[in-house]
Structure formats: C-alpha cells, structure tokens
Design a protein that fits this description.
Blueprint lengths: L10 E6 L3 E9 L2 E9 L4 H16 L3 E5 L10 H16 L3 E5 L1 H8 L7 H11 L21 H16 L4 H5 L1
Parallel strand pairs: 1-4, 4-5
Antiparallel strand pairs: 1-2, 2-3
Helix pairs in contact: 1-2, 3-5, 4-5
C-alpha cells in the first residue's frame, strides 16, 4: 500500500476585466501551475462565475487573491465590482481563504525590479516564469488599447504579491 503524495497548497488569482477574466494558479512563488484567459461576449458575470466555480472545483485552491475592488477604486466598473463580490462569495462558500491587495501593494512588490506599470510588471513576471514568456504583451503605443492578456499577468502579479507580503485575509482587510 502506498501513501498518497500530499498536495501542495495552491494559490489562485483572478483578474476580471471588461472582456472576462485572466487567472493564474501557483504552487509556490517559483512554481506556476496553470493560467488562462477567459473571454465572453454576453452575460459576462454569470458566465465568469460559472467558469470560476468550475476552476475552484477542479483545482481546489487554498487561497484566492483579488485586486481591491471597493468603491474607493474608481477604475472598476460596477459590473466588475459585482463580479468580484460574487467571486469572493464562491470562494468563501468553498472555504477558500481570500486575500485582497491594492494596485499600490502590487507595484511596491515589483519596484525593486524597476517595474511600475502593468506592462513592466508583466515583463518582470515573464522573466521569472518563462512559461508565460510566449504570451507577454509588447509595450503599447499611446493610441493602442490595453492588451487583454495583461489580465493573466496581473493575476500572476497578485499571487506573487501574496507570497511576498504574506497572507492578508479578507477579514484582515475589513477589520
């Protein structure tokens, strides 16, 4: 009889955007497990929540990381705020710890690497996780819209911020 290999704790981050969401799951700061970009055209919140629920069921993460989404974050649309609240509810229903980080916290974690913008942070993440290197977006021109693939890198940056700053649960953020 062989003993089952213990499962490594899995941390997942979800980064909603106007088109759907990007996500990244890590087994540790140096071990990316999986990632993907999910895009929907209609019923975005309902379809995103269905896909995220399936992700939680398949991956069984221990921790979920999200970027702050409260009313003090003006660049978040009301639809994305509702989606984030739904994601938190799904995680809590499954007993998944929730950690919320501000964009400034993410920036400060990457400042030593000279990365301040989302694209610079994406390039820093890709340098340390070669598997993401093939989808890293190029620097955009002022007239270009933001590349939707940045959601995957923003999610990865959230997980790496979580590992650097330590677990700050939803209850700590609200308390």
């Amino acid at each position: 009889m062989t003993a089952a290999t213990p499962r490594k704790p899995l941390t997942i981050a979800v980064q909603p955007n106007a088109r759907g969401f990007g996500w990244a799951a890590f087994e540790g700061p140096f071990a990316i497990h999986e990632w993907d970009l999910v895009i929907f055209n209609r019923d975005k919140n309902a379809k995103c929540l269905e896909r995220i629920e399936a992700l939680f069921a398949r991956l069984l993460p221990d921790t979920l990381c999200l970027e702050a989404f409260g009313p003090e974050v003006p660049r978040r649309t009301e639809r994305v705020r509702r989606l984030c609240k739904g994601i938190v509810a799904l995680a809590m229903d499954r007993g998944i710890d929730v950690a919320i980080y501000t964009r400034d916290q993410v920036r400060s974690c990457f400042a030593d690497l000279g990365a301040r913008t989302r694209v610079e942070i994406a390039h820093a993440v890709a340098r340390h996780h070669a598997a993401l290197g093939e989808i890293v977006p190029k620097r955009r021109q002022a007239w270009d819209s933001e590349d939707h693939r940045l959601a995957v890198f923003s999610a990865a940056a959230l997980v790496l911020t979580h590992y650097q700053l330590g677990a700050r649960t939803l209850f700590d953020a609200l308390g």
